[in-house]
Amino acid sequence: MKAEYINPFISAAFHVLKELLDMEPSKGSLDARREMCTSQQCNVIVGVTGKIEGQVIYGMSLITADRIASLMLGQPVKTFDHLAASAIGEMGNMITGNAGGRLADLGYACQITPPSIVRGTNVKISTLCIPSIVVPIELPLGMIEIAVSLQER
Amino acid sequence: MATRVLVTDDALFMRTMLKNILLHNGYEVVGEAANGRESVELYQALRPDVVTMDITMPEMDGITAVKEIRKQDPRAKIIMCTAMGQKSMVMEAVAAGATDFIVKPFKPEKVLEAIQKLAS
């Protein structure tokens, strides 16, 4: 996977999380993974199609997901219900959508699919065999791990 | 009489947020659609003053729904509310008949400003 695909997602995550949660994110060190699979308890999966294709996984602990959903909803999340899951999914949708604009500026026009939520670690996501570049985004309320697996069509 | 709004988004979270913003500011939310097809059907049944429309949705996307609604009512007022902010997407939406374009995440004031502009 080309390293240039990851930067739009980092910039998009910083922009969206700052706007959405009113918090200053910071970036951890990049890592590579051979397969596309979940490594966190709560994962938002967004598909990408167009000049580049693949998937992006936004992984976080359940506690972090609860805290983010609570902030987005403006009220504490008591159980991780449909509304809380929808909030977390929408966060992934917004970051991917914003990154899509940045990728288009680089010449990789693409569309995104509606987000899905996958609970649990080590779940294999796709039949596409694209290695991932993983970047942890640290927030005061926990860490979101962004795994980007994209290839040119 | 309060401006009647139809909210279209596949995310329950986004529909809830938009509904709360609108209700707290004196607007009437006459319907909620979870995809483009539902929005087209509800538009026909409810004839709202303004529609908010997401783009990436299952069953029927927002651009197709805008085209369908404009076929029913060429004067329909539709505001796109989407995470896809790239220039090509804005141009496609406007060409389909969208009146305004808001990129997520947005502040409540941005939505109210857009609806107020169309309602007046």
Brief summary of the model shown:
The complex is a heterodimer of chains A (153) and B (120). Chain A has 153 residues and is α+β, with helices and mostly antiparallel strands. Chain A has helices at residues 6-21, 62-73, 82-105; strands spanning 26-27, 31-33, 42-50, 52-60, 110-112, 116-119, 132-139, 142-152.
How would you sum up this structure, described in words?
The complex is a heterodimer of chains A (153) and B (120). With 153 residues, chain A is of the alpha+beta class. Chain A has one domain: Chemotaxis protein chec (3-Layer(aba) Sandwich), CATH 3.40.1550.10. Helix content of chain A is 34%, strand content 32%. Chain A contains 3 helices and 8 strands. In chain A, strands 1, 2, 3, 4, 5, 6, 7 and 8 form an 8-stranded antiparallel beta sheet that branches. Chain A is globular, with a radius of gyration of 14 Å. Chain B is an alpha/beta fold and 120 residues long. Chain B has a single domain (4-119), classed as 3-Layer(aba) Sandwich (Rossmann fold), CATH 3.40.50. Chain B has helices at residues 12-23, 36-46, 62-72, 87-96, 108-119, and strands spanning 4-8, 28-33, 50-53, 78-82, 100-103. Chain B has a 5-stranded parallel beta sheet with strand order 2-1-3-4-5, sandwiched between helices. In chain B, helix 1 links the parallel strand 1 and strand 2. In chain B, helix 2 (36-46) runs parallel beside helix 3. Chain B is globular. Chain B starts with a strand and ends with a helix.
